[in-house]
């Protein structure tokens, strides 16, 4: 049976949020190993947990989890895992998530399988919304991927320039398409996504709490895309120039 690792980079999330994330991996109907990579702020709550690899990094990288995400995937490859899934630390899985993604791979042979999301508020209330691009299979959130060994060269795509951190999922999706990997997109919504975006709350008819993000397109990102040096750095790192604007 294929061995699956779930990679979670984490930073300064609360113990409650991290436990929900971690327990959702341990409670999968298809057994998997959780690789948690601390981005400079390790927690002792994972010590002694079964089917868990805990990797503390010596310092924070400030790139939306991309460096720890890449390190976790590369470790999974080195340790002989057959597939890598991702789960951001503030999200969680439904119990059949890994089982359904793996079934999609086994039915099609496609090296990339993805699903869709349910959206939640920061305090865990369901938001009755969908994203048009996701439903049209034109966007895949980081936590929705399963990457099987034939597509493992993509595991290093997270080592993109730091400025791309806020849009890393969009860049990763475009990289997968550019490299011509076959993708099987499930319609199941087995990832619970704790939204940090104002627009999701407004569309869901929920009061917007303070501190949320207006957009993932930062001024630094836009400046980089209009700079010759920025464009060169992105192309050198990725081998192509993503279309974001």
Secondary structure elements and their pairing?
Elements: E1 4-10, H1 15-26, E2 33-38, E3 52-56, H2 66-78, E4 83-86, E5 92-93, H3 97-108, E6 112-120, E7 126-127, H4 132-135, E8 145-148, H5 168-178, E9 183-194, H6 198-203, H7 219-225, H8 228-238
Parallel strand pairs: 1-2, 1-4, 2-3, 6-9
Antiparallel strand pairs: 4-8, 5-9, 6-7, 6-8
Explain what the structure shows.
This protein has 245 residues and is an alpha/beta fold. It has one domain (4-238): Alpha-Beta Complex (Spore Coat Polysaccharide Biosynthesis Protein SpsA, Chain A), CATH 3.90.550.10. The chain is built from eight helices and nine strands. Strand 6 (112-120) and strand 7 form a beta hairpin. The radius of gyration is 17 Å and the shape is globular. The termini are far apart. The model has no long low-confidence stretch (mean pLDDT 96).
Keywords:
9 strands, alpha/beta, nine-stranded mixed sheet, 245 residues, Spore Coat Polysaccharide Biosynthesis Protein SpsA, Chain A
Quickly describe the structure.
The protein is an alpha/beta fold. The chain is built from eight helices and nine strands. Strands 1, 2, 3, 4, 5, 6, 7, 8 and 9 form a nine-stranded mixed sheet that branches.
Cα-atom radius of gyration? 17 Å
Could you state the order of secondary-structure elements as H and E? EHEEHEEHEEHEHEHHH
Sheet bearing the most strands, described? 9 strands, mixed
Structural class: alpha/beta
Q: Total strand count, please?
A: 9
CATH architectural label:
Alpha-Beta Complex
Termini separation comes to 42 Å
């Amino acid at each position: 049976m294929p061995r699956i690792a779930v990679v979670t980079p984490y930073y300064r999330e609360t113990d409650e949020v991290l436990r929900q994330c971690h327990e959702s991996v341990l409670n999968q109907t298809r057994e998997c190993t959780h690789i948690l990579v601390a981005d400079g702020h390790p927690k002792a709550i994972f010590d002694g947990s079964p089917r868990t690899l805990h990797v503390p990094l010596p310092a924070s990288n400030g790139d939306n989890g991309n460096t720890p995400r890449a390190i976790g995937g590369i470790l999974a490859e080195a340790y002989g895992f057959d597939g890598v899934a991702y789960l951001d630390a503030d999200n969680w899985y439904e119990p059949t998530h890994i089982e359904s993604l793996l079934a999609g791979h086994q039915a099609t042979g496609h090296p990339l399988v993805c699903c869709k999301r349910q959206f939640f508020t920061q305090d865990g209330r369901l938001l009755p919304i969908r994203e048009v691009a996701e439903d049209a299979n034109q966007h895949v959130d980081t936590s929705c991927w399963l990457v099987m060994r034939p597509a493992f060269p993509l595991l290093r795509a997270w080592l993109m320039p730091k400025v791309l951190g806020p849009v890393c999922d969009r860049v990763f999706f475009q990289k997968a398409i550019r490299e011509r990997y076959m993708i099987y997109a499930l319609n199941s919504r087995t990832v619970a996504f704790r939204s940090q975006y104002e627009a999701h709350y407004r569309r869901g008819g929920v009061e917007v709490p303070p501190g949320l993000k207006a957009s993932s397109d930062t001024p630094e990102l836009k400046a980089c895309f209009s700079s010759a040096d920025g464009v060169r750095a992105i192309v050198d790192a990725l081998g192509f120039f993503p279309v974001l604007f």
